[in-house]
């Protein structure tokens, strides 16, 4: 078997002259070579077959159909989201077979399945495909022509999946449709049906009263409609508590049209208290939990199961897959997910991709392609016109609006006689305020106008 370069590849920097795809494949190959895996053959096929791969306490089922085949499969998330068509577990199977079966890469032994099946190809993205069993081409010819474009099942036929599989089973009892096909179609149809409901319910393309506040501008009402229609978004907001009212407007609509439990994840007790106060004032309390970020972890069994809407006020934590919030959220079934981040400039392409995968692991397509295509836009700015086209609808900038407000902490009932000024903290506070203003396009314009006005007054004096 061909070995990777003995010089260890960096998992942070792509070597010069190497494509991102080749680099990412080589990293997985390198990991499989340098770490211990236990591979068990689950069937009687000599090469192409099903395997169980164990690494530590984790077990993953691998369907191996060929070196770099678009029909390979592994149950791990990396395989399903990377778009590479391989992972460390598939590479472990290749290593195992190269020692057991001569003739690597076994190009003279093509994979020819006996049964017809519908499966997902994960190489280069997700597509639903059919494979006609050996000797069954004529039997399935009409069936394939009615529903498929070549071997591809088009989205317009997803809602017919039960009918398609029933007809296929009548032709042959060995037919199989894999579970991940149903999972992909369920997700597609849920989102399709929700967007249809939003469009029918709000034909004017804006969120009206009583969902939105009377003081909300037309631009804000239209933005809220887009957020509802999308069903998810990443929302840049230097201070997440300033967008409580827009999120409550979304919660009001969802509570009526897609009722279920709702979860708000915040940073501090002060923010938690503010949320509960405003939710109570707006009459949105039933089934709503406002949890501190420190409380959201897999050990907290009270935060588990299905949620209709989740808002994460500390979205920057989701850029790290090892963060307890990230781990906990991935265990939840969430219909509508909104994530606030302080600034887009905080994230590398990989970190930003990690955040989006909490919404949908396949939202940006193959991870390596996003990293390669989007790196020219990073570090990103909080300017809509500077974002990659593929982020349209995923990132939402809220307009200036009366409903976006800063909530000042209440003053103590008995103020101290002498004001306290933290001289050491003042420069940091000024710099932080200046950074926030520069990062927000509209606030930056106001800042420049104010500075110009001050300079003009100074010149006149």
TrEMBL record:
UniProt keyword list: Metal-binding, Zinc, Zinc-finger
InterPro entries: Znf_SWIM
Domain SWIM-type: 60-98
GO molecular function: zinc ion binding
Top-level taxon of origin: Bacteria
Name of this chain's protein: SWIM zinc finger domain protein
Organism for this UniProt entry: Porphyromonas uenonis 60-3
